[in-house]
Amino acid sequence: MSDVEPLFPAPCSEPPAPSSSPLADEVRTGLQKTPKRLSSRFFYDAEGSRLFQEIMHAPEYYLTRSEYEILDAHKADYLKQFTPDGRPFELVELGAGDGLKTKILLGFFADKNADFTYAPVDISVDALDELVVDLRQKWPDLRLNPRHDDYFNALEQLSEESDARRVVLFLGSNIGNFSPDDALDFYRQLHNRLQPGDLVLTGFDLQKHPAVIHAAYNDRQGLTRAFNLNLLRRINQELDANFDLAAFDHYEVYNPETGEARSYLVSQKAQTVQIAALDMTVPFQYGEIIHTEISRKFTRAQIEQLAQQTGFSLVGWFTDCKGYFADVVFER
Ligand SMILES: C[S@@+](CC[C@H](N)C(=O)[O-])C[C@H]1O[C@@H](n2cnc3c(N)ncnc32)[C@H](O)[C@@H]1O
Where is the composition biased (Pro residues) (predicted)? Predict the structure, then answer.
């Protein structure tokens, strides 16, 4: 064997670069904050989307039933509002999920031979793939334009001129996950991207007896608990972390003065978690929280003010029989 240095010596071995992905960025910054926080947009991996589908059927989770009732009772009103003259329209749904309630509209519109394209947008590839397979099976002739993307990127794509009227669906109280400033910013962006006459149909969860709201995020089957803890399981799986799920608890609080339901994960003991892909060690005190979700509840006055502050006109207000939920139409 020669002891001459090889011409091309093997490169020095370097530690692998820490991961970079939206989840990695969120975990890196969010778990260094005080209090610690992680955005609810990361709930929806395959298991999170599956758990959310179960939550929608939980007896305490009135939101889905209320919105289902509204869309079913008013599907003909919506069609009339979306296309009074039979003109084609594009139905863009932000955060479509499994489309459980949207399918009421799609089925009715298809029966009425409405001329429309459905463009669901979701950050969860699992939810979107499942939705597309189901829609192709149910309505093979439906014009579909799915997009795996964040709401905000999808909004930027709306800027291109379109001949068809745009109708943006933002159902399921997704708007409740935004802070008041982010909600204003979101509708201002929508206003900039849409053309005069375009519509936005938003599902708002309304303020009601606090006990009803509190129960919706504390179902007896423990589905919301599992959904919240699934975020830690996802971090273990995708970022090679060692969160012990049994050492964290789900805690939710509703403040009727602010209309905010907040979900937390609580460390049940002093502990240290390693996140190998980020080369990060995260200490937790006993009782320390990670804030994971905000679900805001609205009054009619707040919704009217939101429309007014962002340049929209409120042209449709539909609620369920209990007055728990409102599906509201804004016109650009
Ligand atoms: C609470 S679920 C509601 C689903 C559906 N709109 C409904 O009413 O049943 C929220 C959905 O929005 C998606 N989502 C959350 N944040 C998002 C974001 N920033 N961009 C795109 N989709 C998002 C999630 O993946 C999930 O499918």
Answer: 8-19
Q: Give the nearest ligand 1 atom to 169 CA.
A: 6
Do residues 279 and 313 both lie within one domain? no
Mean pLDDT of 86-112: 94
* 37 C-alpha to ligand 1 centroid (Å): 19
User: Is the pLDDT score of 283 beyond 80?
Assistant: yes
Q: Which atom of ligand 1 is nearest to the CA of 56?
A: 9
Within a domain: 279: yes
Asked whether 90 and 102 are in contact (CB, 8 A), the reply is: no
**pLDDT the model gives residue 10:** 52
Which CA distances in Å does 175 have to 69, 107, 201, 296? Answer: 19, 25, 11, 8
pLDDT tier at 247 (50, 70, 90 boundaries)?
very high
Regarding whether 203 and 101 lie in a shared domain, the answer is yes
Q: Does a structural domain hold residue 11?
A: no
Q: Quote the ligand 1 centre to 18 CA distance (angstroms).
A: 28
Give me the number of domains the chain comprises: 2
d(C-alpha 92, C-alpha 200), whole Å:
9
Please give the Cα distance from 47 to 281 (Å, whole number).
25
> Given this model, what pLDDT does residue 156 score?
81
